[in-house]
Design goal:
Shape: globular
CATH topology: Purple Acid Phosphatase, chain A, domain 2
Number of domains: 1
CATH class: Alpha Beta
CATH superfamily: Metallo-dependent phosphatases
Distance between the termini: 37 Å
Number of strands: 12
Bound molecules: fe (ii) ion
Largest sheet: 6 strands, mixed
Radius of gyration: 17 Å
Length: 276
């Protein structure tokens, strides 16, 4: 095994998002040889939160690890899953020290090195207070080193601001791609639900994209019903922001990792349309 392909999907929005994942995974497996799949599940439960049922559905569809963002605990029934060391689901690593839930997941598959997934929240224009995400990544890389020193690590930064997300990619390249111990191979952004056009490999080692985009209805305002969002924004009339229903797509990136070289070699945006 010299090349490993991993797909990382952006925020899964509602039942359409879950359906988009189920549609995209067999195609990416067959057509792109993607072996591992990771998805941010924070909007899976009707647009906000992740229920245990949603989580199981994502795993049944072929997802190997689920991440979360600022909506990590909107459905509190997910907390035992996040606490369980055998469940590949982790909450953002830079919450308050007393917050429940694991701070990273490790995917262990036959004939592959351990693949660790860390998610952190950005702090700029994010309403949820959180600790320094750069320090949190440094701390979790050290923690991963204690249990999986040969891990290859994918870091997700769930944030609003492009500069903060790009800064995380350069920080990971600077600090976590050359020493012995766990090695960062990718930094992917999430939270804005809009895919950015900057997927690239930094210095022949680290795959990066500022935002993965979302899995869910794209005839929408970041996944939500257009009219309800306009009522809220144009008329300032609070309205329930239901999930929209048309133009369902699964967005993310396909990352190729040179396993022996312990580096990323390619990154390709993914945007798979689900037939109506
Ligand atoms: Fe989201
Ligand atoms: Fe978010």
């Amino acid at each position: 095994m010299s090349d490993l392909r991993i797909t990382f999907f952006g925020d899964v929005v509602g039942s359409l998002g879950r359906r988009a994942i189920a549609h995209a995974i067999p195609r990416l497996r067959a057509e792109k040889s993607s072996r591992l799949f990771v998805a941010n599940g924070e909007n899976s439960r009707n647009g906000s939160g992740l229920s245990p049922d949603n989580y199981r559905e994502l795993l049944r569809s072929g997802v190997h690890a689920v991440t979360l963002g600022d909506h990590w605990a909107k459905d509190r029934q997910i907390l035992p899953v996040l606490d369980d060391p055998h469940e590949p689901a982790a909450r953002p690593a830079n919450l308050a020290p007393g917050a429940p839930g694991k701070r990273f997941s490790i995917i262990r598959e036959p004939d592959l090195p351990p693949i660790a997934i860390i998610t952190v929240l950005g702090r700029m224009f994010m309403p949820m207070p959180s600790d320094n995400p750069f320090a949190a990544v440094d701390r979790e890389m050290a923690e991963i080193g204690k249990v999986a020193p040969d891990a290859l690590v994918v870091i997700e930064i769930h944030g609003e601001v492009t500069s903060e997300k790009q800064a995380m990619a350069w920080h990971a390249l600077d600090k976590h791609t050359s020493s012995s111990g766990p090695r960062a191979v990718a930094v992917v952004g999430s939270h804005t639900h809009v895919q950015t056009a900057d997927a690239r490999i930094l210095d022949h080692r680290l795959a990066a994209i500022t935002d993965l985009g979302m899995c869910g209805p794209h005839r929408s305002i970041i996944g939500r019903d257009i009219q309800a969002t306009l009522n809220t924004m144009v008329s300032q009339l609070p309205s329930p922001l239901d999930v929209a229903s048309d133009d369902n797509r699964a967005c993310g990136v396909l990352i190729t990792i040179d396993v022996e070289g312990r580096r990323a070699s390619e990154i390709e945006p993914v945007g798979i349309r689900v037939p109506e």
